[in-house]
Specification:
Distance between the termini: 20 Å
Strand content: 25-35%
Radius of gyration: 18 Å
Order of helices and strands: EEEHEEHEHHHEHEHEE
Number of strands: 10
Largest sheet: 6 strands, mixed
CATH architecture of one domain: 3-Layer(aba) Sandwich
Number of helices: 7
Amino acid sequence: MTGGSATAASSAGRPAAAPGGAPPLVEVRRLSKFYIRGEQIIPVLVDIHLDIAAGEYIALMGPSGSGKSTLLNLIAGIDKPSSGEIRVAGIDIAQLRESELAAWRAAHVGFIFQFYNLMPVLSAFDNVELPLLLTSLSRRERRERVETTLALVGLTDRKDHFPNELSGGQQQRVAIARAVISDPTIIVADEPTGDLDRTTAEEILGLLDRLNRELGKTIVMVTHDPKAAEKAQRVAHLEKGVLAD
């Protein structure tokens, strides 16, 4: 898939719209985030308006400090905005209490990080199974789902290996399997290829592309890498906390 530039929010507050006129899965409105240091207010995001359609694959790009990871964390419910709305499937997650937000994340968000965040004392199988332990699935149902998901990422023969017995690319595949195992509403990926060599990065990007095209997964990816951004359907650029053309 070929990346394109996002339609940025105008001064009138028009959102960067999802393509094709599809109803947005994610609606970000008047979103701002700032930190207070002493008497100083430090803006990170300023009046962000953004729509993301169900099944869309969007890349967030910008220089370090532009606010792209902060925006990703807000969409994923890891952080809360200073003001504004973030609606995911009609739910304004900015209004949820911490306990409600934790339950919402577990049910709706799959996380992929640059450094994998696998449990070193657990096998690949057990790492992937972790999100399912919070569900009502039986042990047999969990096993079947884990085996199917490991097959999807090409790691059936590595299911009993521990993270230190896997390459970086294999560890990221385990992390991707863990992210999709509970069929999340949205997958958020923060520099998923940042710690990988180019060949392995291409393999991981191909897997994300497959998840989007074949399974219809909505993916929001932060990246510094133009090659990675090219895989997305759309690219949104941030400059000093503001969406830019």
